[in-house]
Amino acid sequence: MNKTLVAYFSASGTTAGVAKDLASAIGADLYRIQPAVPYTQADLNWMDKKSRSSVEMSDKSSRPALADTDANIGAYDTILLGFPIWWYVAPTIINTFLESYDFSGKKIVLFATSGGSGFGKAVAGLKSSVSADTEITEGRILNSVSELKRWEKSL
Hints:
The chain is α/β, with parallel strands linked by helices.
């Protein structure tokens, strides 16, 4: 078995577009990570310290609930995991996703969209959410089609 899954969380649609293009380009399956309560524009206002995203990102133990946990993770060897960069790390819903499944022996390659920052401490912030034998590596920031095309050649 050498199947790949592109799993992604997208609050505004940007990461969703990249994930769909990536899955199509490499012939991978696609899975959308959805919060039980969708984010509104007000929730995503990072300038408001009381907005939902600001509160979640201030509390590293925050684990927003998922709408479902029906991804068949056991069918895949490699998971390309995408998300927008929030405060130089992955949104805490990514920790929720990782803690909801058994990723033992799997390889997780991160990709992200960002308004200007790199991965920051995303890998370090996610490692504690998986077993020790799960490999998590930093992939690429993919903000454009040209960046995606360069990365897909190396996959």
